[in-house]
């Protein structure tokens, strides 16, 4: 198998992007971007460490959980998780990030590229609290580029069509997966119960 080794070689396979695809990239958030973020309950954050090892992590909360500080700055609260800190540790050494905002049922997405920093500023954490529970930290993203992404990926995958979804009962539970991957002594049912209890206690 041969692999493409240059940008020029890659470009021979594709047409040049259309004028609209180029011009739609904005250097800041406009009203449509702000509205999308305010309605979005879910964002994916792409990052990489100083050695080029990449990571993508999901962040989700009630719609509008990502705060817009100004036209070039957004704040993403970090709620309790597994404490691996893959994305946060990446940002400390390499601030470049790519974000993908989703709104359930909408095939178009909002992409944002920029630089991120981590803060534990109490005033900002209090602003982003849920039911009196403060986020552990906040990721501040300086927006360098923002643009809408077309619907084709979601149309092809039929992601939002319930009739295309697999029956969840045909898939293994996380407890079953962890039992097999980690060779756990306890049953899958006990692991699933432990996970459910943890979710209830540490959601925020």
From TrEMBL:
It holds the Pfam family PNPOx_N. Gene3D superfamilies: Electron Transport, Fmn-binding Protein, Chain A. Residues 30-128 form the Pyridoxamine 5'-phosphate oxidase N-terminal domain. It comes from the Bacteria. This is Pyridoxamine 5'-phosphate oxidase N-terminal domain-containing protein. It comes from Mesorhizobium alhagi CCNWXJ12-2.
